[in-house]
């Protein structure tokens, strides 16, 4: 039986039986030809939702009362390889020499709520070392981290575990952030949270600087006693390829459809932001008792929809062996819990740093760090930064070109660079700025320069 080869490989790697069983649940689906696709004909658009910007003030009071029963979980498994990093992305300085983890640690200690990181084997040690200076984080008698699992990549030709002796680590992959629910069980963290009296968890990506506890949102969740709640925001053209919220025809249940789950014939509808108006911010609220009950009743398999990704075993080598990677999305739990809810939140609650362009904007004076450790926009219109990937894609390249400090962008609406340009001290950008270096040599902007409009070099 094909599955035996995977089970033996995972047991040899000391993976827990609950996870091995969950892998088998999805492997059977894959072997039977299931792809996890969600057709447009099977769903309806979501027309309207409760709006967090309209919540009554009394919900904040309810939320304050629920803080003592609430924990924060941050997904912290990524290395930031797309930005040229070899360590946890969350260790990157983002504001005033503070890393993502520093900012988040200050947020949760001010709220006096526990924080737990779902780390990967690659990020755990460095992340815990960074947090060691925050004594208050250990005052809740809970672990600071737990580990996501890893799974074997599946050879497309015969559905056997791929063999890659050149680099055996490439034979494995993460199972997607839907692994959160399984990891909470196998690590004992869910049991520990419940035993300590925690009822709710706020889950988000570690690089989303807008994902802070909002007491009105917490109050809404606690008051309604929903088993699960997703924060969604209005889709824009920038979001058209991201997962959107929809409603399942057969039972009216909310569902999340990711781009990998959309048939090619339905891509136009998927990207139609006037039809599917809301995207998943990956800010999720969990009722921990409801999660425990669901996992127990389902033999510790929540049953999230399968996402089948086609890759190559070496992602940097398109000629290497084609593989399948099975994933699940944690937000898709909205389709599993009866009574699951979604609310619309302002865009300010979705501020991820995915690129060096995002990072430069946040490091500039267009954003500020508040006394309660939130990073918020410091300008009325905000700034859109677009850097040339040929020169600025990786963090070390960015730092080398802005070694004298980031330009002032507080009065800038658009900052675009084409070509290799380096910056002196005290540079100020105003309005729309587009800098184009048409030569093959680097250009250096002198100290104290004020930039506006399009400038060619």
Detailed description of the structure:
With 457 residues, this protein is α/β, with parallel strands linked by helices. The protein has two domains: 2-349, Alpha-Beta Complex (Spore Coat Polysaccharide Biosynthesis Protein SpsA, Chain A); 356-456, UDP N-Acetylglucosamine Acyltransferase, domain 1, CATH 2.160.10. It is 25% helix and 26% strand. It is built from 13 helices and 25 strands. It has helices at residues 2-12, 17-31, 58-66, 100-111, 124-131, 180-186, 189-195, 215-224, 267-270, 288-297, 356-363, 389-392, 395-401, and strands spanning 43-45, 70-76, 93-95, 98-99, 115-119, 145-147, 151-152, 154-155, 172-173, 200-205, 228-234, 244-248, 254-257, 278-287, 307-312, 322-327, 341-344, 367-369, 375-377, 384-386, 408-418, 421-423, 428-436, 443-445, 450-456. The strands form eight sheets. The chain has a seven-stranded mixed sheet, sandwiched between helices. Helix 3 (58-66) packs across helix 8 (215-224). The radius of gyration is 23 Å and the shape is globular. It starts with a helix and ends with a strand. The mean pLDDT is 94.
